[in-house]
Every structure is written in structure tokens, then in C-alpha cells.
């Protein structure tokens, strides 16, 4: 067994030991101040279409026909402990067998303070590195989705490029005048360390996959002409490191939420990283990226769940001339998801639409695209620790920049994935 496999097995061996030492495993009845969950996904994948962007090309999928078959897809370690009656610490690590960072690395690490108040108003403060409050899909341990293996294009991009390194304040209140079943919340965050966010979506475009970027990852860019050695923008590395502070200017987001029990949820957010689009540090450009986001979740008749998200944003880098930046892109995406559980089974169908448009006319930097995707997913919870998942994914995209890599500008990519998902812990 080579060193790569040992790097994967060691953290899971440690996780298994910790699972056996948990209060539940030891037969203790007292509640634990610590919750530790870990998992591993093994997948059988068949893909067709363009070579994957993760393999130095431009395809939308994580895997391609040269990198499919039986694979170690991902692992995670999700740890939370109560430090005091109102203070908890949460650390989340992802495990991948690829060349873009360490085998084990963090995706979130934060402290959460929630004072106990005997009122209809609640407060919460979160400090550290965490996902902004966007995804309706990624609500499981390890920021996984219980609905499908691969999240929507919107939430794939959140996992690729967005992380808040700062503080989030939440104020929520139950509306007693409406019987206490309605809750309204306000989330306000100030953060840094996310200035390169926008580079991937501009130069790669939208994707659909389940790989999350981690603190130390170097996420590859397609071989676009302008960043090649000897060209205009060759100061940019051939990869993006999303969690980097370049201009020392904080970003922010504001999110409003209305919830009715577990039957209805509506969110609206404005997000702005306030990066200086002239910034450059350690081979990374700063991208000014902002967007508006709306999310809806509802329980429908016949036990059907509905999820929908919409995002409309802007990202830019470079000099500002004649009203546009060197790279000046508008991005939009939305999806509609329907899901229904059947005892231990769940069936999910999702439709995605995504597009990019650009205002600049920089030569050899065509970033526009139009596309849509269908996803059909099935999940079966065999036991409390073992689940079987299947997913069929089809993406059709028209992206003129693919001609730079001698790829057809219009392509339909397909992927079938069968996964065994092992979950352990408290």
C-alpha cells in the first residue's frame, strides 16, 4: 500500500477510534458536549463529454472519461464541541485524493456564541471561517446534500470560491402576533480573505460537482490564453487560491430570512466582497464580486419538497476604461428542485439554468456562456451508517472560449454515478 493510501486511511482510522470512544458507543446515558461525525464516499463513475476542468481543460464535470471508474470520491471529518453553555466550536475537514492540496484540509472552522434568552428574540455571533448562508441543499454533515451527490450550479460555485473569514451576527425573532410559528431573521457579516473569488466563475464558468475548495487548495484554471507565460496577464498563477486577502478591505453580506415552522422558508441576500479589481498578490488577482440571491423552500402536498434558488451577480478584474474593466462579467443562475422521501428512500429531480455575459471586448478572453442541466438522484438509507446513492447528470453548454482549447463550443456532457456512503459518529 503506497503513501497516498495511508494518508487517506490514517484519518479514518482515527475517526473510527473516536467514534468507538464516544459516549454513545461506550453506553453512557449522559449527554455529550462533543459531536463528531465522519464519512467516506466510494463511487463508480461513468462520464462523457469534454475533458474535466480539474484535469487542466474546460469541461463542466469533476470527472471525465479518462478519470472515471471506481473512485474514492470524498471523505469528511465534522467536529463540534461545547466549550461553555453558550459557546461552541465547529471544525470541518474534507479529504480528497487529488493534487490540489493536502489530503486532509479544513473547509470551515469557527466559534459560535448563542446567549440563552427567555424572550422571543434570539442572538447569535459566529467568528472564524464559514460558508455564507446561501445553500438550501448542503445541509448534511460535511456540508453534503441529502438530495443529490452533486449540488446545483449555484451551490457548486459556493463550494468552489466562497468562504467568509470574519464575523457573522444573527438576530432572529418569533412573531408572537402570528402565533409564534413565524420567525424572521437578519444575518450581517463582515469578512476578509476571499478576494480572488470570481476568477473561477469568469474563466472557467459554471460547473456542477461535489468537490469543496479547502483552505490550502490551489484550484486549477483552464489554460486560457491571456494568463499563459509571455502574455498580458501572466502574473496570474494557473490556479486560484480562493481564501486570500489582497487589498485589506473587508467585504460584507446581509441576509434576510422568513421561516414558517418547517413548511416554508424565504431568503434574500446581498453579497459584496468589495475587492479592489486592480489588486495582485502572490500570483493572485483580486476580483470585485457582488451578487443578489433569493432562496425558497416549501413543503407541498403529497410529501413533496420544493427548493429553488436564484443568483444574479457581477465580477470584474483589471483596468477600468470606457466604462468597463479588462474582464467584466455578469453571471446568473437558478434552479428548481423537487424531492420526495419514501420511508428510507428519496427521489430528487432538479433543473439548472446558468449563464455568463460580458461587457468587455478584451481579445482572447471570451467568457460568455449559456447552459442548462438536468439531475435525477436516488438515495437509499440502508442503515444508520450506510447509504446507497445514484445520480444521472446531463449538462448542455455553449461556451465560445472552449475553442481556445480545441474543444467544440457546444457540448452535452453526461455523468452516471453510483456511490456507497459510509457515515459514523454521534
Topology readout:
Elements: H1 3-20, E1 34-48, E2 69-84, E3 87-95, E4 104-113, E5 121-130, H2 153-161, E6 164-174, E7 182-192, H3 199-203, E8 219-220, E9 239-240, E10 251-260, E11 264-272, E12 280-281, E13 284-285, E14 288-300, E15 304-321, E16 324-342, E17 345-358, E18 369-381, E19 386-398, E20 410-425
Antiparallel strand pairs: 1-2, 1-20, 2-3, 3-4, 4-5, 5-6, 6-7, 7-10, 8-9, 10-11, 11-14, 12-13, 14-15, 15-16, 16-17, 17-18, 18-19, 19-20
Largest sheet: 16 strands, antiparallel, barrel
- Content-based structural category: mainly beta
Report the total helices: 3
Mean pLDDT, to the nearest integer, reads: 91
How many strands appear in the DSSP assignment?
20
Taking pLDDT < 50 over at least 5 consecutive residues as the criterion, the unreliable ranges are 1-8, 14-26
- The gross shape turns out to be globular
Calculate Rg over CA atoms: 22 Å
* Order of helix and strand elements from N to C terminus: HEEEEEHEEHEEEEEEEEEEEEE
Helix content: under 10%
Strand order within the widest beta sheet: 1-2-3-4-5-6-7-10-11-14-15-16-17-18-19-20
First-residue to last-residue Cα separation: 30 Å
- Beta-strand content: over 45%
